[in-house]
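Service request form, structural biology core

Requester: graduate student, group of Dr. S.
Request type: structure prediction, single chain
Budget code: on file
Notes: please return the result as structure tokens.

Sequence provided:
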Amino acid sequence: MSDTFGQSITLTVFGESHGPAIGATVTGLAPGVPVNTDFMRAQMDLRRARGRISTARTEADAVRIVSGVYRGAATGTALTLLIENTNTRSADYAKMSDLLRPGHADYTAYRKYGGHQDARGGGHFSGRLTAPVVAACSIFTYLLRQKGVVIATHLARCAGVDDAPFSADPALLTQQAEALNRADFAVLDTARGAAMTQAIEAAAAAGDSVGGVLETVILGLPAGLGEPFFASVESTLAALFFSIPAVKGVEFGLGFGFADRLGSTANDPFRMQNGRIVTATNHNGGVNGGITNGMPVVVRTVVKPTPSIYKPQQTVDFIAQKNAVLQIEGRHDPCILHRARVVQDSLAAFAVADLCGRHFGTRWQEETPWNTD
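Core staff response, request fulfilled:
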């Protein structure tokens, strides 16, 4: 099993949804890097379940740092944090332990681990494992903000409702990103956000669930990060985003929209602006040849509807080897987009930190080796 990602820095996650605790370990932090626990708590709060559009399972998600931090700063050794699971109801899963849940990893986990996996609440496959990801990556999100790099995600589409688009104006785009990072429900148009909420609640009332699209923008990156092939900006971000449960597609810039373009309308013309090389458009989402070009990095993920729904579903009893009908019980999110957006922000921050480390070494953590004007 591979639970670790990263080259210049690494992130390891561990634990199960209904186990005693979940956690993460980070290596590669330079000594003295600030670990702002107030900011960490604020990031964790953005992931918290709220109201009828989220699961009824609520966790305190108190983060306990057990190594690698002294007097509010990284020591330079491995940083490990723990989050206790305090609100589990494993009996809900015992009743259907022999039934494969459609859309879940029950069957594939059984085939891979031969029945030794912890199936309660999805075990290690659960979205619960994103909690330590957010906690650990808050260190990089905070560090990058001090260096002028801002990352923000909005619900570009949810339950068939589209949000307003990101602005092409740099100043307005920065304002939008900062507003999203203060919002509990991350949309650019509050009226459309209200329509999304209504659609989520309607699906929940019907025992169903909804999905959508998350769109992330990364502002303030220098040109030159990334590699042409196996460690490109796209492959690094996509690998991390595909680790988010329920993400089934990733695209950059126009993404699949390039299929209907001519080269003359797909290319981004270069021009000079205030002494800097920029592009007149940003169809390529801030990346050329796998390397950042200094424009905003724009990436979208599609998130499938939460597979745990309360409608009866056809399945298989894998112990008895016969067809069966599944009626799921327990507490489940009718939609995860509004909670997943901070997870996407967090993994984007980790990706950028790793890319910076590959290019600048640990120096970037201690100073800012690029022009932030």
